[in-house]
């Protein structure tokens, strides 16, 4: 009865934990505390907000925040805008929630044929030539397809 929170923490930590082997003991302790801080922040975020966010998406938002702060510092030091920021590669396109749902500049444009981010699966790939100007994600549009609206809601 008293171990419920500890078991929940261990379960969340085992999902996407940082597992690094190191001969230096303090590296393992640092990675444990980093995991603990992210998981505790996720638990507090779930308690105080009404948004339904998964732990994986929350970790991506935290990483995107760290990368954005670091990128601004690097950009200020170099003072050149020709280099684009490093983006995290994954199977599905990852667009932050605030950009995806709040910006009003989303317009469809024609580009090369790419897989739709909403309805395309590994077994049944769906290709489209439409993409969003802000998100840079390929999305289906047409009479029977409403992937563009579903992605931005």
Structure report:
With 153 residues, the chain is mainly α. It has 2 domains: 4-78, no CATH class; 97-151. It is built from 5 helices and 2 strands, in the order ααααββα. The mean pLDDT is 80.
Q: Roughly what is the average pLDDT, rounded to an integer?
A: 80
Major beta sheet summary: 2 strands, antiparallel
Tally of individual domains: 2
Q: Please state the overall shape, judged from the principal axes of the Cα atoms.
A: elongated
Catalogue the unreliable spans. none
Radius of gyration: 20 Å
What keyword list fits this structure?
153 residues; mainly alpha; 2 domains; 46% helix
Please outline the helices and strands.
Blueprint: H1 4-15, H2 25-48, H3 55-78, H4 97-102, E1 108-115, E2 127-132, H5 147-151
Antiparallel strand pairs: 1-2
Q: What's a concise summary of this model?
A:
The protein has about 150 residues and is mainly alpha-helical. The chain has helices spanning about 5-15, 25-50, 55-80, 95-100, 145-150, and strands spanning about 110-115, 125-130. It folds into two domains: about 5-80, no CATH class; about 95-150.
